[in-house]
Design brief:
2 domains; Jelly Rolls; mainly beta; metal-binding; eleven-stranded antiparallel β-sheet; Oxalate decarboxylase
Length: about 350
């Protein structure tokens, strides 16, 4: 009953819903929580949300000084800082290194195979990690402690040129996440590489980007055009104010993976062949829209609805239903829909991603 109250438009769907569209929603609250000294993590992958084949997500928290140990993945990692501050490091295949502090609203991107680390600062941090493979699992990453634990000590001795006794106290298994001291200033942590620093910035201050302001909210778009390092993941941070709506649209380049940050909303997805289905979302939920399916998202709460639209692509692309109709011969549109001046005169040739609406009119 309580779950039905949280999902009123799924319990009593709109009359326009029809067909058998698969589940397009999963909450991080319904996942298995991995607890560690130093923080926690939980994930939504294709295991939890089978339709999510292109991207997987991890929600992670680090305490002050908490460390997500030095590791690397087969997949690229894109991240959005939700709360707090963290220090990230990386080293590329050319021996060039990178170190930066990130705050709420910042992004980072680590290409597949590039080793990196994350450590909480000050009051700790919480962030969303997104990987470009729906079957990814955070628990299958390559970690430095796991490798040391499964390498003979005589091999470690030969590799590093030190006696075997230097490895007497190494961990016997993967640490994954652990508690450490809060690091000092970033200047005190800097390491000079003879090959220099990674030339491309692996972080991006998304909240410092001037938003696209519309009648119903705002949008910030980030992809390889303004964050060149992010060659395989594009995103939009969307704000829908009360009474606003993410306009009817679709994406011509890939599936859409969503993460809801604040507020409550509902999304209806149109799948063609007479099929449509409505879902309710709130903070902590993951949404998904398969490739090219039409959809819209309404704010049904009293506060702004903030969420991320994320794509396995180097560019953010969407097609506006309103703009498409406005840029098509008028008589052709009228004959399709049996509509008149009330609609035709209101069509907009310029895209407005978030619009106002009044469901009582």
């Amino acid at each position: 009953m309580l779950r039905d109250l949280q999902n009123p438009d799924m319990f009593v769907p709109p009359k326009t819903d029809a067909g058998t569209i698969p589940n397009l929603k999963f909450s991080f609250s319904d996942t298995h929580m991995q607890l560690y000294h130093g923080g926690w993590s939980r994930e939504v992958t294709a295991r939890e949300l089978p339709i999510s084949t292109t991207l997987a997500g991890v929600n992670m928290r680090l305490t002050p000084g908490g460390v997500r140990e030095m590791h690397w993945h087969k997949q690229a990692e894109w991240a959005y800082m939700i709360l707090g501050r963290a220090r990230v490091t990386a080293v590329d295949q050319n021996g060039r290194n990178f170190i930066a502090d990130v705050s709420a609203g910042d992004l980072w991107y680590f290409p597949a195979g590039i080793p990196h680390s994350i450590q909480g600062l000050d009051d700790g941090c919480e962030f969303l990690l997104v990987f470009d493979d729906g079957n990814f699992s955070e628990l299958s990453t390559f970690t430095i402690t796991d490798w040391f634990a499964h390498t003979p000590r005589d091999v470690l001795s030969a590799n590093f040129g030190v006696p075997e006794r230097a490895f007497e106290h190494i961990p016997t298994k993967q640490r994954y996440m652990f508690q450490a001291e809060v690091p000092g200033s970033i200047e005190s942590d800097k390491v000079s590489s003879p090959y220099g620093a990674i030339p491309q910035n692996l972080t991006y201050h998304l909240h410092q980007q001037a938003p696209i302001i519309t009648s119903g909210g705002s949008v910030r778009i980030v992809d390889a055009r303004n964050f060149p390092a992010s060659v395989n993941i594009a995103a939009a941070l969307v704000e829908i104010k009360p009474g606003g709506m993410r306009e009817l649209h679709w994406h011509p380049n890939n599936d859409e993976w969503q993460y809801y940050l604040t507020g409550t909303g509902r999304m209806t997805v149109f799948a063609a062949s007479g099929e449509a289905r409505t879902f309710n979302y709130q903070a902590g939920d993951v949404g998904y829209v398969p490739f090219a399916m039409g959809h819209y998202i309404q704010n049904i709460g009293t506060e702004s609805l903030w969420f991320l639209e994320i794509f396995k692509s180097n560019r953010f692309e969407d097609v506006s239903l309103n703009q498409w109709m406005a840029l098509t011969p008028k008589k052709l549109v009228e004959e399709h829909l049996n509509v008149g001046p009330d609609l035709m005169d209101a069509l907009q040739k310029e895209k407005s991603p978030v619009v106002k609406y009044n469901e009582n009119e």
